[in-house]
Amino acid sequence: MFKVLFVTSEAHPLIKTGGLGDVSGSLPATLQSLGCDVRLLLPAYRTVLDRLTSVSPVAQLNLPQLVAPARLLEGRFPGTGVTTWLVDYPPAYDRSGGPYLDPLGQPWGDNAGRFALLARAAAAIALGQAGVSWQPDIVHANDWQTGLTPVFMKDTYPRPATVFTIHNLAYQGLFDQAELGHLGLPWSLWTPDSLEFYGRLSFIKGGLVYSDMLSTVSPTYAREIQTPDLGFGLDGLLRHRADRLVGILNGIDDKEWDPQHDSWIVRNYDAAHISAKRDNKRALQHEHGLDPDSQAPLVGMVSRLVRQKGVDLAISAVSYLLHARAQIVFLGNGERSYEDALRRLAARHPGRVAARIGYDEAAAHRIESAADMFLMPSRFEPCGLNQLYSLRYGTVPIVRRVGGLADTVIDASEPNLRAGVATGIVFDGDDANALIAALGRAMSLYRNPSRWRSLVHCGMRQDFSWRASAQHYIDLYRSARILHDHTIGKNQNPGASP
Ligand code: ADP
Q: Are residues 220 and 309 in the same domain?
């Protein structure tokens, strides 16, 4: 089975800003349970060092562009025991604030150097230049922060095969041209078919151009990013590499997100005891100052507050929800204008609208356990995790038909309801009216208890555990190996027939 170096800039519960953190926290352990030998590599941010007790240095990394050597620290990933390597270089990672943004919410000014360092460390380990007695067969890099990894490996043979996963194409790691020189990258890479992207240096292009195989986190998103609408300027490149690109749905950590054993919620339950959700609803209403009204449909939304997530659409739909005698609770942080708008709505409609601005893992669990419906009107959604948590928690997701949302939620159309396969409300269209129409459908189904119950139960029966998806990643690694060996064979023997 494969030896895999899994390179990431976040992994829950050590550090997380979104879905990438969830995936990096669960996929490596599942791959390991299927027989892979996985090492996780991430930066030694201050928060990670605080949370990962008992780490020890295993190597000194003498990497270009650094004024002093970096260290490679080893620890065990909490809860799973996966061997975790941290790139320890205090000038880059030992600071307060987020992994990408400073305490004022601005990207750290030295992000290019910080994440080039992560990629260089990954390449050094992969190529056997790090002084550790372990070398992977596969280097699996994720998102722009790790995009230079295959770039630093591309001219060395033999080398491991490389896989790059796109968790969100909207974030590309674009920097000034001057960074190319600062990072010690050759000018030969400054071309549109390499790292240049309309006059800027693109980290994500490193992953997209130079990896043996590419993946993204749902089959529909894999198709969408090859179109001008959702390709963020990279659709041409992705069409060019379409034969190397696959979509693999994310799984969920079904231990962490399990209504039967979730220690953050007031009352545990399963599909046979769904009425226990009422207690969670009452507690959530109390927690957020909502009226103690058991009949009011309670709608939840937990999200980064950015345009992608359709927060503006949700805000526009609030007056309809009030008219429908529903309650709504928002949890999220992000753009200041959305944060302020939600605070204002909550202040204007006490008892009916609640807004908690911030990042709060426990509150996210409580909302999933208590709400009747969950809102995800995303403009695009590579996979989305909250709709999967919602299905598991018997909270009916209301989603736009995009990306992973389209792949995981089955609309409560009349035929689907009759066939007993519907799991949520899926809508088309990208304006508030489309969302309001979808909410209208949800409200009338909610008022029909037997139909609602079958929707809830069907959702709870879905299986989105990591096992099946991890198997697809192993197939992907196999393809990467074959294609890599084939390419090397061709390069070494150009006259040979394919
Ligand atoms: P994205 O990665 O685009 O943010 P996903 O749905 O893939 O979206 O994953 C989001 C993850 O982050 C989920 O686990 C969700 O519960 C969590 N999350 C987002 N915002 C918050 C918040 N304010 N508080 C707690 N958890 C949050």
A: no
CATH number for the domain that contains residue 475? 3.40.50.2000
Q: Which atom of ligand 1 is nearest to the CA of 404?
A: 7
Mean pLDDT of 29-34: 96
For 212-216, 315-319, 406-410, 491-495, which range has the lowest pLDDT when averaged over its residues? Answer: 491-495
Predicted confidence at residue 253, as pLDDT, reads 87
Q: Say if residues 154 and 212 touch (Cβ distance below 8 Å).
A: no
Question: Helices then strands (H, E): number in the chain?
Answer: 19, 18
Axis-axis angle for helices 311-323, 432-446 (nearest 10)? 40
Question: For residue 17, how far is its CA from the centre of ligand 1 (angstroms)?
Answer: 7
What is the dihedral sign for C-alpha 150, 152, 155, 156?
Answer: negative
When divided into structural domains, the chain yields a total of: 2
Mean pLDDT of the 137-142 span: 98
Q: Would 134 be classed as within a structural domain?
A: yes
Nearest CA residue ID for atom 19, ligand 1: 303
CA of 356 to the centre of ligand 1 (A): 14
Q: How far is the CA of 19 from the centre of ligand 1 (A)?
A: 6
What domain range includes position 403? 271-460
The residue whose CB lies within 8 Å of the most ligand 1 atoms, and thus the one to mutate among 375, 385, 405, 409, is: 385
What six digits make up the tokens of 376?
């995800």
In a domain, residue 261? The reply is no
Residue 117 lies in a domain: yes
Same domain, 173 and 201: yes
Quickly state the pLDDT bin for 65 (edges 50, 70, 90).
confident
